[in-house]
Design goal:
alpha/beta; TIM Barrel; 8-stranded parallel β-barrel; two-stranded antiparallel sheet; globular; binds flavin mononucleotide; oxidoreductase; OxRdtase_FMN_N; flavoprotein; NADP binding
């Protein structure tokens, strides 16, 4: 039996004052089960996040959670734009923490990919009359409404909305705040020259295109205090010529780090409709970028994209130097994946699990005893 120290995947990680029991993180995966007002209305979010926490992950990311009603990527997306949305998400954060995992939340504004922006009945605005904004008035696809170019007032309001949502999230127990700057959502449309044709302070040069992202990160860091981990999810490439790329991501990552961002979550794609690749269909550069950004920007990174196998996860951490692996579909498939991974890697694995708690103090309840029994049986 190896100790956790010999497996990087099961070596605890501390960032600021937050300790993750291992380096397995659950990717934010929207469930779209909230009420029309963004409240986690039933037990689905609790049970889903709870299963990942009970299943042994080190970090359980909840979300995407929208920062304002006009920024919803789905009419049933979770929100944290008002206090009414706090209690149910607080319950999720509390349960996740009780299982020994760190509760994290991803905050977003979907910009021109707001669900109501899809042309349905010819309306130019959402169900409550809000307009859709993006860096420039360029629609995502033919069946999406054309967004309005965000005014400076819009930009400042969205920045404030991120701060207010982040403060609510911290108040109700989340220890990691992730800002969603990827997948073609609002901030990504500012970063990429393909979707930003502005001529003001928020468009043109790389410095200008990064201004909105940097101002949100800076304001959120100041508002949440020193002990909370601040992460940013980026699309490291648009998979398109002249689009956002790894080189620009390195520059952004350096600037974000200087503002107190602790972790860059390396995703990809989602900006250009029809570009074949995305975080759901990544190329090797998505995982490799976690190494490049970690080395060149000197900031901790999370590697993700089709990580499904324990040895693969271990190898990704070793090769790239990423601090965490972030996993989506493999954990949907098996929320107890961390226990399976511990067995596959021959380590004791996560310490907290309901079954083992019940059996605490009884020899048959320990994983090593259980495995020895199996070995003995196989000898008979
Ligand atoms: C059901 C589902 C919902 C998702 N929702 C989000 C989301 O809200 N925010 C986000 O950044 N990514 C979202 N993603 C993308 C995942 O976080 C992740 O990037 C993607 O699944 C690739 O990781 P994987 O190959 O380990 O599944 C979602 C993925 C799935 C399968």
């Amino acid at each position: 039996m190896l100790s956790g120290v010999q497996s990087l995947l099961f070596t605890p990680l501390t960032i600021r004052s937050v300790t993750f029991r291992n380096r397995i993180a659950v990717s934010p995966m929207s469930q779209f089960g909230a009420t029309d007002n963004g409240v986690a209305a039933n037990d689905w979010d609790l049970v889903t996040a709870g299963a990942y926490a009970k299943g042994g992950a080190g970090l359980v990311m909840v979300g995407g959670v929208t920062v304002c009603r006009a920024g919803r990527h789905n009419p049933h997306a979770l929100g944290l734009w008002c206090d009414e949305q706090r209690p149910e998400l607080a319950r999720v954060a509390r349960f996740v923490a009780k299982q020994g995992a760190v509760p994290g939340v991803q905050l977003l504004h979907a910009g021109r990919k707001c669900k109501e922006a899809i042309v349905a009945d010819g309306r130019a605005a959402g169900d409550d009359g809000h307009e859709f904004i993006a860096a420039s008035a360029i629609p995502f696809a033919a069946d999406y409404m054309c967004p309005l170019e965000a005014s400076v007032e819009d930009i400042e309001a969205v920045c404030r909305a991120h701060v207010e949502a982040a403060v609510r999230a911290v108040d109700i127990g989340f220890k990691v705040i992730e800002l969603h700057f990827a997948h073609g959502y609002l901030v990504h449309t500012f970063l990429s020259a393909l979707t930003n044709s502005r001529t003001d302070l928020y468009g043109g040069s790389l410095d200008n295109r990064m201004r909105f992202a940097l101002s949100i990160a800076c304001a959120v860091r100041q508002a949440i205090g020193d002990h909370i981990v601040l992460a940013v999810r980026v699309s490291v490439t648009d998979y398109c010529p002249d689009g956002w790329d790894v080189k620009q991501t390195v520059v952004l990552a350096k600037r974000l780090k200087a503002l107190g961002v602790d972790l860059i979550d390396c995703s990809s794609g989602g900006l250009v409709s029809g570009a074949g690749n995305s975080s759901m269909n990544p190329t090797a550069i998505q995982i490799e970028s976690a190494g490049i950004i970690q080395r060149e920007a000197g900031v901790a990174t999370a590697a993700h994209g089709l990580i499904v196998d324990p040895h693969q996860a271990e190898h990704v951490l070793t090769r790239t130097g990423a601090a965490l692996v972030i996993m989506g579909r493999a954990l949907i498939n098996n929320p107890n994946w961390p226990y399976m991974a511990a067995d596959a890697l021959g380590v004791e694995g996560p310490a907290v699990n309901g079954m083992f708690k019940v059996a605490a103090g009884k020899p048959w309840g320990t994983r090593s005893h259980w495995r020895k029994q199996v070995a003995d049986l196989q000898q008979q």
